[in-house]
Specification:
single chain; alpha+beta; six-stranded antiparallel beta sheet; 6 strands; about 30% helix; globular; hydrolase; Medium/long-chain acyl-CoA thioesterase YigI; HotDog_dom_sf; Thioestr_dom; PAAI_dom
Length: about 160
């Protein structure tokens, strides 16, 4: 899955992209705490970034990103991928109307596999929707180091109705 969606969100209207960015980066306070930023937003996948900060290091130190930060970041990106897929499915609706569809989105299952310690100055998170049903969406996520090396993977299920 280590493909990179285009950084230019050409498939969505600017109003939808700006609204989704505001929801994700500003209104979801925990994403603000993590410093999670959207770097690419496409109907078939999303990319985000977290910069290493001292307050995100695990309680054992060693300049490793805390596993909870990795898990929360992957969960958030899985949710963002679902939001993008829902937005793409309903392109016949106005952007503001599509943004209201995310009110009931929630994680119902999450699995994270930690493959390597998260050490670096910044990290890239990628997510894509494997299946978007009428009630449940399934996602796959990746957490990459600054060199592009795969550090963790995730799979999530999200309620969408």
């Amino acid at each position: 899955m280590t493909r990179h969606p285009s950084a230019a969100p050409g498939d969505f209207e600017p109003e939808f992209v700006d609204g989704l960015r505001a929801i994700f980066e500003e209104k979801i306070v925990f994403n603000q705490v993590l410093g999670l930023k959207i770097t690419a937003l496409q109907p078939d996948g999303v990319v985000g970034r977290i910069a290493m900060r001292r307050d995100l290091i695990g309680h054992y130190g060693h300049n490793r990103l805390h596993g909870g930060v990795v898990s929360a970041g992957l969960d958030a990106m899985g949710g963002l991928a679902v939001m993008a897929a829902i937005g793409a499915r309903h392109m016949d609706e106005a952007p503001a109307q599509r943004l209201h569809r995310f009110a009931k989105l929630g994680t119902i299952d999450l699995r994270i596999d930690y493959l390597r310690p998260a050490i670096g100055e910044h990290f890239e998170l990628q997510a894509q929707v494997l299946r978007l049903g009428s009630r449940v969406a399934s996602t796959r996520m990746e957490f990459l180091g600054p060199d592009g090396k795969l550090l963790s993977t995730g799979a999530g299920a999200y309620i969408v109705s």
